[in-house]
Amino acid sequence: MGIFYDEAQRVFHLRGKDVSYVLGVVREGYLAHLYYGKGIREFAGSNGLTFIKRDFSPSVGIGDETFSLDSLPQEYPQYGNTDFRKPAYQVKGADGTTISDLRYDSHRIFAGKVGLDGLPATYVERDGDADTLEITMVDAVLGLRVILQYTVFEAENVITRSARFVNEGQEALQIMKAASASVDFKDSDYDLLTLPGAWGNERQVERAPLRHGMQSVDSVRGGSSHQQNPFVALLGKHATEDAGEVYGFNLVYSGNFEASVEVDQFATTRVIMGLHSFNFDWKLESGAEFQTPEVVMVYSDTGLGGMSRQYHRFYQKHLVRGVYRDQTRPILVNNWEATYFNFTEEKILDIAKVGEKLGMELLVLDDGWFGKRNSDKSSLGDWFVNAEKLPNGLKNLAENVNNLGMKFGLWFEPEMVSVDSDLYREHPEWCIHVPNRAKSESRNQLVLDFSREDVRAEITRRMVAILEEVPVSYVKWDMNRHLTEVGSAHFPSDRQQEIAHRHILGVYSVMDVITTRFPDILFESCSGGGGRFDPGMLYYMPQTWTSDNTDAVSRLKIQYGTSLVYPIVTMGSHVSSAPNHQVGRFTSLEMRGNVAMSGNLGYELDLTTLTDAEQKIVKQQITTYKEIRQLIQFGDFYRLKSPFEGNETAWMFVDEAKTECYVFYFQVLATPARPLQFVKLAGLNVAAQYQLRGTEQIFGGDELMYAGIKVPTALIGDFQTVSWHFQLK
């Protein structure tokens, strides 16, 4: 059992592999946070709560000026009764006030973990993998019951948290804010790490010291967004890639979110993560329930690298599902940057023929195969075959690709509709909009209202019709704009601020139906590239298109930042043409290949225009990748040199048994008087001997890690790369 309850002290101790999380009930039922960090055998209160009088921190009740919620570290803080910091939740009662006062009522501890209604969440395959604590808090005046859910995974340093609201009163309540987790740290001696970005520049790494007041990241775009990722980490001041304490927080959700970090007047730190409260208001009828998404909290005392590898292993085992969870992913060619909308059946088959000759395993037909889609100005929602481009039908094309020895994949954008489409002309009310307001377009499209069951049913029907007829092995599920004029003609006025969340729940519902109906299809999520790279998507689709920017140099930072949280096997990474279509940079095919081989390798260029020399390079890349694919996609990942800190990038992959590793090194720009370069490896068996593949050279694991391997001086010029493959001797 990973959860221990001391009834006399009213203290709960959650213990994972090497982490402890301790909370307790104090005074008249307040839930206090006591400790979160490296695992301890038991908590006896050596650094327990301190109660002293604080000026301008009013006391709870009368007679004891030392007890104020303003200075109490709390588990799920509330508004209105002496705590002036940001609350984790806020509820409006029938009298119009927003004061609440949750007190401990009961708890239960059980083996295993339960799913969250309508939401993606981490899971266990057997009850022995985890233990769950549910603490019931009650506000008797409101008739509100909140069940705080904690799950500790005993073989991991992972704790998940969420909350469920139940209205047991006679009047409806309005939930104005409902965070999934709140943690009060006793000091503020941390740096905050976040992953901001933009389209084509996702998940850049920023680290800055905490300061007094509020720091936050969020999205109000209706999606988790390119601009911010639903992840933050607190790092000890001296924490590095390989050492020091790190606390990671990641929200399993794909819509509007907020993660805030507040340092108060007493230099304590409060981290809150969950649904964004802006433009959110949920009417909770009498007897109804509301479930928040889940936060995955990871503790590491071995730096950012230790945190990342825990997230990677944990998500692969307890978040990603389905046939492809543990299967290596195919090497594909996508026609998008090769042809864009201008393709014929013959052109697609020509690309497939070259791809098959070079060793590729999957041909993906991207945007433009349906309706009258010859540009991005029409036909989204009309999911029937474009007979002008494919006169013999989509099924015939897929079968011809299959006959070449390749699988067939297809692009969809199910959540969107073009104004110039039969679907929109039939049902203009089916888009997200506000009556009497203009409808903003982006990429010449509107967003279908997935909060409506009739919309979900029709889009599901159209997708199923295609997928049942055509032998599709892979689906790229795209989403190319964010939400504006958020409203629904289907819901009354007092439900309009629920639409953004209801829409995401509807998206999840359709994804669940489609992916369950077609379990043998490999689904890849996409949102203008990496605009919805979050754990919620990974629950339904085991990989994500990392970014629409395929430039190798840009991808060094994008893939490095993504790797902080998300497993390598979830990252789609393609070799595209040079000069690159997004930034106009020319990089060598070797550079593009090594960057793309650091994820799920694919190609996105016109294979029919490759020279014989280029075909030879591509064929060798594919041969090499097939040899190391298991290692790359499922091995332990180590970041060795950061593209955010200099001109070089290096990373490596090690198998679980430490018998094999593959190392990539990249130099961005040539420099004069270049110093001699070397790379120190990581994660090896220090007592083992490793042979460099293709040579007779043998090195000790300790030597490779502590002395390092030298970078060849022959790497001259911009955008250079080299790789090393070591195996146990």
UniProtKB/TrEMBL annotation:
Cited SUPFAM superfamilies: (Trans)glycosidases (SSF51445)
Glycosyl hydrolase family 36 N-terminal domain segment(s): 29-285
EC number annotated for this UniProt entry: 3.2.1.22
Catalytic activity: Hydrolysis of terminal, non-reducing alpha-D-galactose residues in alpha-D-galactosides, including galactose oligosaccharides, galactomannans and galactolipids
Keywords: Glycosidase, Hydrolase
Enzyme class: hydrolase
Chain ranges of the Glycosyl hydrolase family 36 C-terminal domain: 648-726
Family membership: Belongs to the glycosyl hydrolase 36 family.
UniProt name for this protein: Alpha-galactosidase
The organism of origin for this protein: Listeria newyorkensis
